[in-house]
Amino acid sequence: MVDHSHKPKYDLEERTLCFARDVVAFVNSLPRTTSNIEIGRQLIRAAGSVGANYIEANEALGKKDFLMRIKIARKESKEGRYWLYLVTCDEASRATQARLVQESTELMLIFSAILRKSMGRL
Q1: Cα separation of 12 and 49, whole Å?
Q2: How far apart are CA 16 and CA 54, in angstroms?
Q3: What is the pTM of this model?
Q4: Could you tell me which CATH number the domain at 12-120 has?
Q5: 46's torsion region: left (phi>0), alpha (psi -120 to 50) or beta?
């Protein structure tokens, strides 16, 4: 048995990766309409960008770079939520859509809190 007690319970890199993976699975389950194909592309880009920018923030060269990457991650979370509202899904997928909207909202709020705390330390 592997001991995970030394790992933090809250890993934002892992959470953003799971969000991106869940979005990809959701988009792949959507009806193949012209609008869903285009919206799906935008949604996948935004969802993947959330985690990618968070990782970049953690490797930032300085405070200014860190803040910019966190702002982009927050912006992409908002954009992902927008695209999630626009996709057309069947009744069976609505619960997944709602869960992903909730997760994008929570990520946006987390990045906002990181920004507030970080800007207070300038």
Answers
A1: 14
A2: 8
A3: 0.87
A4: 1.20.1440.60
A5: alpha
pLDDT at 8 over 70: no
**DSSP collapsed to 3 states, 39-82:** HHHHHHHHHHHHHHHHHHHHCCCCHHHHHHHHHHHHHHHHHHHH
Per-residue CA distances from 54 to 11, 15, 87 (Å): 11, 11, 25
Ranges of each domain in the chain: 12-120
Listed residue (23, 50, 52) closest to 111, CA to CA: 50
pLDDT band of 119, cuts 50, 70, 90: confident
Which residue has tokens 């966190």?
A: 70
Question: Does residue 104 sit in helix, strand or coil?
Answer: helix
State the DSSP H helix or E strand holding residue 93, giving kind and residue range, or none if neither.
none
Tokens of 17: 């990766």
- What average pLDDT is seen over the chain? 91
